[in-house]
Design brief:
The chain folds into two domains: 237 residues, CofD-like domains (Rossmann fold, 3-Layer(aba) Sandwich); 27 residues, no CATH class. 40% of the residues lie in helices and 18% in strands. It contains 13 helices and 14 strands. The chain is globular, with a radius of gyration of 19 Å. The structure holds ligand FO1. Ligand FO1 binds next to helix 2 and helix 6.
């Protein structure tokens, strides 16, 4: 069985940890491929930062800072203290010493002309992650946020301003020239199930399907597409997806996000959608929109609960695949 997951950073990393746990327990021969958002990526003090790829890599390696949700566990910040002293970098964006090891290695290979997908393969081969990570694109297509008075790189808006500056629009710079990274279209075409992680629908999932060719590949993929809502009872599970959704005129609800993604039968992304039990009232509207919906516990408290969500998503996929609506 081949499972392909569209994923952003922190929420996606926890979801992938659950998919892996469920597969290890119940589907030992299944292969998991994660297509990961690269819109958050940037050059900083000469280093290429790839937050979502790193959050997933560290989380699946068991090396992540579980409290902060990003960076490495047991981290120190001696080098970033020096960067601040020299007045370079972003004082509000902390690069830990261990994390800098990843950025130096990635930047070194990129400067040798190695594409990001091969860099990612090399970095992740240090551990037995049980999941293949592929960046959505090898091209630089960074998310910028248009605010009153100009535009900011997403990371500045997110970490320096905590998304407090009203986002007038999100611009995925250079996306029209970006191409899916090697393996992305195959991972979509060959998947029995495509899972849409409960990541930020705008700046994580949206920026993946924006890459020319990806939305089109999903539209004709023979597998079943099942998403998990990143919104529970009108609140975001984590991060600032609500601010991003408001900026594009989408309500912060499990139903609104599913309708924003759209039913694949109507030219959208989804065949099915998991909402939390608290949002069970949304099921009839979703069914009416052509999205098979199921209400299950969606809070990812730990690996067991995220494994159960993965199991629920695969069960819904099996039902839809068998024509059971
Ligand atoms: N998030 C913060 O809120 N503050 C930081 O200083 C910060 C540093 C950082 C360094 C490397 C990295 O991979 C991620 C980092 N993040 C930080 C998180 C980052 O903004 C998020 O992981 C995503 O880009 C947004 O989902």
């Amino acid at each position: 069985m081949k499972i392909t997951v569209l994923s952003g950073g922190v929420g996606g990393a926890r979801f992938l940890r659950g998919v892996r746990a469920h597969v290890q327990r119940s589907l030992p021969h299944a292969e998991i491929t994660a297509i990961v958002n690269t819109g958050d990526d940037m050059w900083l003090t000469g280093l290429r930062i790839a937050p979502d790829l790193d959050s997933i890599m560290y989380t699946l390696a068991g090396e992540n800072d579980e409290v902060r949700g990003w960076g490495r566990v047991g981290e120190t910040e001696r080098v970033s203290g020096e960067l601040r002293a020299y007045g370079v970098g972003w004082p509000w964006f902390t690069l830990g010493d261990l994390d800098i090891g990843t950025h130096i290695t990635r930047s070194h290979w990129l400067r040798e002309g190695v594409p990001l997908s091969e860099v990612t393969r090399r970095l992740t081969s240090r551990w037995d992650l049980g999941v293949r990570l592929i960046p959505a694109t090898d091209d630089e297509a960074e998310t910028h946020v248009v605010v009153d008075g100009g535009d900011l790189h997403f990371q500045e808006w997110w970490t320096k301003h905590r998304a407090a500056l009203t986002a007038r629009a999100f611009v995925h710079q250079g996306v029209e020239k970006a191409r899916p990274a090697p393996g992305v279209l195959e991972a979509i075409a060959e998947a029995d199930v495509i899972l849409v992680a409960p990541s930020n629908p705008v700046v994580s999932i949206g920026t993946i399907i924006d890459i020319p060719g990806i939305r089109e590949a999903i539209a004709v993929a023979p597998g079943t597409v099942v998403g998990a809502s990143p919104i529970i009872a009108g609140t975001v599970v984590r991060g600032m997806a609500d601010v991003c959704l408001t900026a594009i005129g989408v309500a912060t609800s499990a139903e609104a996000v599913a309708l924003h993604y759209g039913a694949r039968s109507a030219g959208g992304l989804l065949d099915a959608w998991l909402v939390d039990d608290a949002d069970a009232a949304a099921l009839p509207a979703l069914e009416a929109a052509g999205i098979a919906a199921s209400a299950v516990p969606l809070w990812m408290r730990d690996t067991d609960t995220s494994a159960q969500i993965a199991a629920d998503a695969l069960a819904v996929a099996a039902g839809v695949g068998a024509g059971i609506r």
